[in-house]
Design goal:
The chain is an alpha+beta fold. Helix content is 43%, strand content 19%. A five-stranded mixed beta barrel has the order 1-2-3-5-4.
Length: 220
């Protein structure tokens, strides 16, 4: 199956009426963390896609298994062995904050801001206005041995690149040895800041991306 076909099969199963309570609870918890979008927000479509990606690939309806794991158990009875392997591969998706390191025709080299892992992403679309050094949130979907962008992005202004990198370093330095830094909470914090920036255009971007201010830690 193609990546789109796999995603559509998973979404159709997970979005069925009998599983709507799962989606509603995932939505409540997700937007409580990252900020709830309004239809008039410029990033509304990206943020709704982000919710769906979270629901499909990260959310655990029963507290243990992710939605994609439950689909493989209960909804993929007609899948071939190869198709099940493709879906398991898709289950290793990676959502993170990335910095653009290099752009080539048809691909992009990214580095995770927290952790430093590097990834080569296949990208046949023109990613609007991205340039070397830009920082953004995205999810990478593995398929047939290559990484592809999912549909949701959260972009952060170039003016606060250094502030974001400094805060990421502080986060890593403050993490006890042997433990992983809480990248998810950092992503949520940045998502709230980006949404706040959309809604308060009269406020300086540096004031919104102020990691010591109360609005840097709380909801939009």
């Amino acid at each position: 199956m193609t990546l789109t076909e796999l995603h559509d099969r998973l979404l159709a199963w997970a979005g069925a009426e009998e599983r709507q309570p799962w989606l509603l609870e995932a939505r409540r918890a997700w937007f409580a963390r990252v900020g709830e979008p309004h239809e008039e927000d410029k990033s509304y479509e990206h943020r709704m896609n982000g919710l769906l990606e979270h629901y499909l690939y990260d959310y655990r309806p029963d507290g243990t298994n992710r939605t994609i794991d439950l689909f493989l158990r209960d909804g993929a009875g007609d899948f071939t062995t190869d198709e099940r392997a493709q879906m398991r591969e898709l289950g290793r998706s990676r959502r993170a904050l990335f910095e653009v390191r290099r752009i080539r025709p048809g691909s992009m080299e990214l580095e995770e801001v927290v952790g430093g892992a590097r990834h080569e992403v296949v990208e046949r679309r023109a990613v609007v206005a991205l340039a070397k050094g830009d920082i953004f949130e995205a999810r990478l979907l593995p398929h047939d041995g290559k990484l592809h962008f999912a549909a949701a992005f959260v972009y952060h202004p170039r003016e606060v690149r250094r502030a974001i990198l400094k805060e990421a370093k502080r986060l890593v330095d403050a993490t006890p040895p042997g433990q992983a830094a809480d990248g998810d909470e950092f992503l949520a914090q940045l998502s709230r800041m980006a949404l706040r920036l959309e809604r308060y255009r009269n406020v300086r971007v540096e004031s919104i991306y102020d990691f010591d201010a109360p609005q840097g830690r709380n909801a939009v």
